[in-house]
Amino acid sequence: MYGVNGKPVIFAGNSHPELVQNICDYLQQEVGQIEVFKFTNDNTFVRILENVRQKDVFILQSDVEPVNDHIMELLIMIDAAKRASAGRITAVIPYYSYARTDKKDQPRVPITGRLVADLLETAGADRVVMIDLHAGQVQGFFQVPVDELTAMPGLVEYFVNRDLKDPVVVATDIGITKKARDFAGAINAPLAIVEKRRLGNEDRVESMNVIGDVDGHPIILFDDEISTGGTMLSAVDAITSRGGGDIYVVATHGVLPGDASKRITDVPHIKELVITDTVPLPEDKVNSKIKVISIAPLLGEAIRRIHEGRSVGELFTLK
């Protein structure tokens, strides 16, 4: 086992310090002491303020806006820990933004998900922890071990307790069907799918068809990530045009740039937007329709198990 006194060291970047505090509260320990800021010339500076020699270090940073600044900050934090002789360094990235760029789907474009993976390894990450990747194959971009956790159990529990009458789970597109099917099975509900067409590189989609019966049923509209809300709103139009009832939008990652949260929750048919806190939700975006489920216990337990050399997979098989 790495570390001293049986505890890992957990550092927070500037992207989501509240989540790190909640994780440390779960583990009943203090947040690691570190300072991370920018000089007036826009250069990022990191200094670790405690001894980490041969310790088990976890550095948490979500790839949220400003995405590139937070990625660079994470790389520098990893490098600082490596040069301070940390025993093992785990990058905990609840939201891995560039997971969408997982292949060349157009001529002369990069595979940025792979590039970021290479940068993390070069900086000195020995292990990576992420939650609900948009493209699971991103795990294969890394040469170091990757633990992809899922927020599914917490989301399932929420809707089981919600006890909707005869709901239908609707996948926002064919690509998310497998996860949506697992979710539907867990709450004992049928599955429908929205077939969609995306318009080039624009954040706009044209929904084409709903495959499955939604008429008269409450709808749980499922996706792994909500960004501008274009996909969700197009899906809502398609569902309501086919007689769907109240709609509950659910996703692990609520990126919600600009006024996206307001655009979604202003729709009368949408009764609730259920997300997790992989991405911080600013106070000015909070409203009564938004329910945030914390993934701090999930990450805290995963960190404990990794530190103690126990199975992480058991997290999703325990009764």
In brief:
With 319 residues, the protein is of the alpha/beta class. The protein is built from eight helices and 14 strands. It folds into two domains: 9-151 and 296-316, Rossmann fold (3-Layer(aba) Sandwich), CATH 3.40.50; 152-293, Rossmann fold (3-Layer(aba) Sandwich).
What does this structure look like?
With 319 residues, the protein is an alpha/beta fold. The protein has two domains: 9-151 and 296-316, Rossmann fold (3-Layer(aba) Sandwich), CATH 3.40.50; 152-293, Rossmann fold, CATH 3.40.50.2020. Helices cover 29% and strands 25% of the residues. The chain has helices at 17-27, 67-83, 112-123, 152-162, 177-186, 230-240, 260-265, 296-308, and strands at 9-12, 34-38, 44-48, 56-60, 88-93, 127-131, 146-149, 168-171, 191-198, 205-211, 219-226, 247-254, 270-276, 290-293. The strands form three sheets. A seven-stranded mixed beta sheet has the order 10-9-8-11-12-13-14, sandwiched between helices. The chain has a five-stranded parallel beta sheet with strand order 1-4-5-6-7, sandwiched between helices.
* Fraction of helical residues: 25-40%
Name the CATH class of the largest domain.
Alpha Beta
Strand content: 25-35%
Regions with pLDDT < 50 over 5+ consecutive residues?
none
Number of DSSP-assigned strands:
14
Structural class: alpha/beta
| CATH architectural name of the largest domain | 3-Layer(aba) Sandwich
**Tally of separate helices:** 8
Could you please say which CATH topology of the largest domain applies here? Rossmann fold
Summarize the main sheet: 7 strands, mixed
What is the typical, i.e. mean, pLDDT? 92
What kind of assembly state do the chains in view correspond to?
A: single chain
SSE string: EHEEEHEHEEHEHEEEHEHEEH
Taken together, the total number of domains comes to 2
Whole-angstrom Rg: 20 Å
First-residue to last-residue Cα separation: 27 Å
Spatial order of the strands forming the largest sheet: 10-9-8-11-12-13-14
Q: What's the shape? A: globular
